[in-house]
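Appendix B. One record, verbatim.
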Amino acid sequence: MRIQTTLAVLIASAVPVIFSQTVIAQKQLQRGVQGAVANEADSTTIPSTANATPSTPVESKPGEWIQLFNGKDLTGWTPKVRHQPLGENWGNTFRVEDGILRVVYDDTKAYPKYNEQFAHLFYEKPFSNYRLRVEYRFVGAQCPGGPGWATRNNGLMLHCEDPKLMTLDQDFPASIEVQLLGGNGKDERTTLNLCTPGTNVVMNGKLFTPHCTTSKSKTFHGDQWVTVEVEVRGGEVVRHIIDGETVLEYTEPQLDDRDEHSRMLIEKNGGKKLLTGGYISIQGESAPTEFRKIELQVLQ
């Protein structure tokens, strides 16, 4: 009895230590970039695939710039193409060539026609307060069968839901889309517009429910490189910026309870609609697009 009692005491005293060490280890593994969303439901890291190797966690101090795209490969990024499982880079849609991240539709077996195979490439970590800077351009002809509205059209999807929560046939993640548009060579067509798949925002003090609204940017024709920035302050304010000028601003990004999938996300978030952070993704909407820089500055 004494031996059994002593053994029981030793085991009981060891459990808190083991538990404590396990918690510490878990916290160390989950500690990502400062400014990452700490309470994102069911979101730690996105599963690795052959086409998207998870990167080494990047520690950053406020004010430092993080290169989300390393200029070499898709490390840290995971694709989600409609009708395909998470991690399947259908038709090699997203690829890196000559230091450029390209959205391409040259695999005619995968894309005899576009067939609304909307694609998104997700960065592996969520963020909340940050400034995102991107250099992009549109090149080449649209994929056959692409929607008319998607001509020279891409987007930076911010405050995205965890891609693991997307359904197989879901077209867009619930998110705030900073819409990137290119001109057709003659007509005015602003960029850094706003679209709201499964979401709403507040503008001028009122809930704004139209799906898209234009910015006051100038038009960028041809295949010129365009540098844009987005300042994101959690669930408070989002600013779209070109050449130091804010061309669109809104507040209180939130899930739209009129949308069935968003209602599920609201329930999963304890009834809260307000989006205070989330994942970042770039799109593949049938328009060949190139990105040569995607960097982020964590803000306090």
